[in-house]
Amino acid sequence: MLRKSGIMLHISSLPNKYGFGCFSKEAYEFVDFLHDSGFKIWEILPLNPTNESGSPFQSYSVFAGNPCFIDLTEFLNENELLDLIEKNQDDLLNNDNVKKVATCNQIDFEKIYTKRISLLKKIFDRDYEKYDLTNFKKENAFWLDDYSTFMALKDKYKLPYWKFPNEFSNYNKKAINYFKESNKKAIDFYVFIQYLFFEQWKKLKTYANIKGIEIFGDIAFYPAGDSCDVWANKKDFCFDENNNPKGLAGVPPDYFSKDGQLWGNPVYNIKEMKNNNYRFWTKRLEHAYKFFDIVRLDHFRGFEAFYVVDNINANTAKKGKWIKGLGLDFFNHLKNKKIPKLVAEDLGCITKSVRDLMDKIGVAGMKVFQFAFDGNPKNNYFPHNYIDNCVAYIGTHDNNTFIGFLEEDIDNKTSLEIKKYLGQNENCNNNEVLEMLFSVMLNSRAETVILTMQDILYLNAFYRMNTPSIVGGNWCFRLNNNYNSSNIKEFLLKLNISSNRM
User: Fold this and answer.
1) Which of 26, 146, 304, 345 is catalytic?
2) Tens digits of per-residue pLDDT, 330-356?
3) Strand 305-309 relative to strand 321-324, pairing
4) What's residue 81's pLDDT?
């Protein structure tokens, strides 16, 4: 067994004075930080384009890359980039005299996207002829043609796809081919920016791999309702004769929400997917191999059975039903396919059938320390109950930071239970509790342990990445360059060496 550890930090959370993180020199510096601290894994969230809320789990394409992650300093001079600098962010994120190690100020994702697209169009108009995209188009034709056409249509109509003129909303091939012929430059622009994204990501991933760092990615279970994936592959989803969803995706009430989570995505047509040899999901995972060494299958239990809210006008996910998913046959189909190593996001309502599926395919599950203290001494999230084949976390991107968890999410009784479990005095402070927890987690049996950057920096609830079921104010966490100190690296390196994770 090869014991490893890693850090979870999304690309958008990297230091950068131009709105939020990207594939700039700061990304390479973070790889160096991981290497120098003894980590072997960098876990990130989905790399797809986000919606106006900045959510990486709601994208216009599950295949495309987020154009906001392209490092524009490679193509533009300082004067051209001036408009991208957010007020006060240059000092906040890059001034050594500022003592903060991070910020979580609200980000206007839509504004940043608009600015970057404007500059990318400038680069496209000036430099497009310099690039030969023939091979890129050919290798990615199975998704790139639909995506670039979809985005050109979005630019033209500025509406959800189902409000396009009928010939386009219904994916009439004759009408779409005519649109392609008439809007070649607009479509080529989106091909061009995907090329830039892929080239920069490939360089960053190669650099990380050379440094001994694996990239641990994340794949959302469903594409967004308003996405080219649904638009161009409608038979793979459940729609009625009027092109209305037959039901909406979500999960029933659980730890994160008493009303459940109503995601609103159309759900999969399992019969059709089986008939076409799982084309959509097979392509997704083969495509993910270009991005990731390891990938977390978000909402893994959906592969065994997924939850459907029949009432498409519902406001909560309290009333719904479970539908059988792709199951074991799909994973058997993946054998001999070139895909990343899979990890199951097996949190929430997990049944014996889901566990059986995981065991049959040998996929690792997740253990989250914050879920351990529910009164059950046999809770599988206690570190002493971890098995080898798992990925262990103190908390994920959906959890509070651990300091925030101690300060806001639990009562005094649970706080004392945690201190007792960790062998600490009841008068020790929260930073001391967290420091001991680092050692306990890393010395557990878990083959892989992932820490969040917020916990490494002892940050409170203000800095959490996401609060599920809450709209707005999420995905805003960003580092400042002060995180990269020799003291922090030395502390982490000692932890990794002592726990045999080097």
Assistant:
1) 345
2) 999 999 999 999 999 998 778 999 999
3) antiparallel
4) 87
Strands of 321-324's sheet in order across: 261-266, 248-251, 305-309, 321-324
345: annotated active-site residue: yes
Number of domain units in the chain: 1
Q: Could you list the residue range(s) of the whole structural domain that residue 253 is in?
A: 4-498
Whether 98 shows a pLDDT value over 70: the answer reads: no
CA gap 323, 303 in Å, rounded = 10
> What is the pairing mode between strands 102-103 and 321-324?
unpaired
Residue 97's pLDDT is what? Answer: 46
Asked whether 449 and 237 are in contact (CB, 8 A), the reply is no
454 closest CA partner among 393, 382, 496: 393
Supply the CATH number for residue 50's domain: 3.20.20.80
Residue 129 phi, psi (nearest 5): -65, -15
Candidate list 80, 167, 298, 435, residue with the active-site label: 298
Residue 407 annotated as catalytic = no
Instruction: Choose, from 398, 407, 417, 432, the residue flagged as catalytic.
Output: 398
Cα 72 from Cα 67, distance rounded (Å) = 10
**Alpha-carbon gap, residue 477 to 14, rounded angstroms:** 9
